[in-house]
Amino acid sequence: MQKAAKETGRIVTAEEHSIIGGLGDAVCEAIRENPVPVTKIGVNDCFGYSGPAVDLLKDFGLCADHVVEVVKEVLKK
Fold this sequence. Notes:
alpha+beta, Rossmann fold, two-stranded parallel ribbon, globular
């Protein structure tokens, strides 16, 4: 992970749960000695709710289209 972070200069994580204490935080911890910007895609600090999976992925910004949009924005930086 350190090598990839150094080579790319940025990281994007995507997870199907809260971004607080999740994969993104674990990645930040793993690269703390050589930090690069980390963009976390996941459920923000809000109450969840039930529904059809496809709708929930869209509502929480976890659908493929949104992930691609975020990655494109990160790559522009």
